Amino acid sequence: MKVLWCWRCQMDLPMLDEEEFARIHLLLQRKQLRNEAGISSLKHAFAPALREYERLTGFRETNINAVLHHRLILFGPPCTACGKPLRTPQARYCAACGASRQPAPS
Ligand SMILES: [Zn+2]
Ligand SMILES: [Zn+2]
């Protein structure tokens, strides 16, 4: 877990590494199987995944969609000008400050 600026949420939030994300994903999949009963229990269905996110990060999130995009692999390296992570690993410039991406120092 690593705290990064999320451009979607416009705040610093804990981002999951792939190992952590896998745990949450697993909880969601399990829930989907058990939850074919109906949409009314959808909120319930996400509770274990949200709890796991809170356990891993210490941050209480109530929106499963936020949890799903708080994943380190979806973000690029930090912008060399403003320090915010690039929006995607492929980004060629920083959407936050407009600086073009600098090659990573070797
Ligand atoms: Zn976010
Ligand atoms: Zn920038």
- Major beta sheet, strand line-up: 1-2
Strand content bin = 5-15%
Q: How many domain modules?
A: 2
Mean of residue pLDDT? 89
The helicity comes to: 25-40%
The major β-sheet equals:
2 strands, antiparallel
Order of helices and strands: EEHHH
Estimated structural class: alpha+beta
Low-confidence stretches: none
**What integer value in Å does the Rg equal?**
16 Å
Specify the overall morphology. Answer: elongated
Distance between the termini: 25 Å
Number of strands: 2
Instruction: State the helix count.
Output: 3
Molecules bound to protein? zinc ion
Describe the fold and architecture.
The protein has 106 residues and is of the alpha+beta class. The protein folds into two domains: 2-74, no CATH class; 78-106, no CATH class. Helices cover 37% and strands 9% of the residues. It is built from three helices and two strands; from the N terminus they run ββααα. It has helices at 18-34, 42-57, 64-69; strands spanning 2-6, 11-15. A two-stranded antiparallel ribbon has the order 1-2. A hairpin with a 4-residue loop joins strand 1 and strand 2. Helix 1 runs antiparallel to helix 2. Bound molecules: zinc ion (ZN) (2 copies). Residues 6, 8-9, 13, 66, 69-70 line the site of one zinc ion.
